[in-house]
Amino acid sequence: MTGTPERVTTSVPDLVAAIGPRVRTSPFFPATVRAGVTAVSTYNHMWLPMSYGDPEREYERLTTGVSMWDVAAQRHTEVSGPDADAVVELVTAVDTSDTDRCRAIYAPMCDHDGRLINDPVLFHWHDGTWRFSISDSDVRLWLQAIIRAHEFRAQVAELDTATLAIQGPKAGDVIDALGFGWFDELDQFEQRPTPMRLDDGPAVEVVVSKSGWSTQGGCEIFLDDATRAVDLWNTVSAAGEPFDIGPGAPNATERIENVLLSYGTDTGYDADPIELGLTDHLDLDRPDFIGQAALRRIRDDGPKRRLRGVVIDGDDIGVLQQPVPFTIGGDRVGLLRAATHSPRFESNIGLALLDASCTPGDVGSVELDDGQRTARLVELPFADSLED
């Protein structure tokens, strides 16, 4: 038999999703509809575009060209006021005291039992003002409760910031075409406010950040005037046309290949950052913060689980829709939480949250739609295990 093996996917019916006040649309929504969005997910109570109908082309564009993403669902939750610095020190598991204005830090947040409740990028916007660019959980409610309980002099607001990401190896060409010739001077997670003329209309102030949820390079543009979001989309699309820019979305395959953690997907809602491999991002010996005592105990005793890389045999699989049990010797040892076929590694790969006793080299099995597959544990990152 010749040809490409058929991918194994989880069957789902054709659905029509109702849009209402509980599930918001992005400020870019009209532009993404015109661009041909075909799949969405809910993220922070907002539709997040997931595909424009050609996942293989979207992966190729991200890894070899340039793509533009509506990531307004990556909401900005702002803390401001005289005690804002103290708030962010208390609610994050990192030392933010050295994060200067117009800089950012990856800032895992935990509850009092050390469970990860969000893993935002935290931007030091101005003196006394911080913005959490959040993953998918209700950080605003947590912050409001903590501020009230500790009687901090601070306010919390969820901003309707329109965030557009430009990602891919050719992102720099588009960024230059937009007039941001200084972009290469920025460090990772550094931002710069700048005026930007949008779609032949009046200029507005945006903030350009060297960031984005891929490993391919690029920027995120933050626009607080959401009424101009479609103009921003059109401006970036026009600037990128000579470089074959196209619409895309946070890419499941690229992020699994490069082990970019997806809160909720990889973690569930009961995982701690140590078992997820985030120890190097934590500052456990600084002054008190929420979850510190629990995390120190986990560090000293060792985590009960570990996030492991998995290689799955057989025909190419599609993106795993739901976690499935991972078994070794007939015993369930955890869950395969995410999986996909990797063009880069020419293998089916995944991320599994398993008992700590499971180590690279162990062989188990997972049950997919087409039956049982053999699955082998490998060291993370995958590049260390699967590339020659």
From TrEMBL:
InterPro entries on file: GcvT/YgfZ/DmdA (IPR028896), GcvT/YgfZ_C (IPR029043), GcvT_C (IPR013977), GCVT_N (IPR006222), TrmE/GcvT-like (IPR027266)
Keywords assigned: Methyltransferase, Transferase
GO terms, biological process: methylation
Residue ranges annotated for the GCVT N-terminal domain, each copy included: 34-283
Domain Aminomethyltransferase C-terminal: 305-384
GO molecular function, one term: methyltransferase activity
Residue ranges of coiled coil: none
UniProt binding sites for substrate: 220
Keyword Chaperone: no
Domain of life according to the entry: Bacteria
Protein name: Aminomethyltransferase
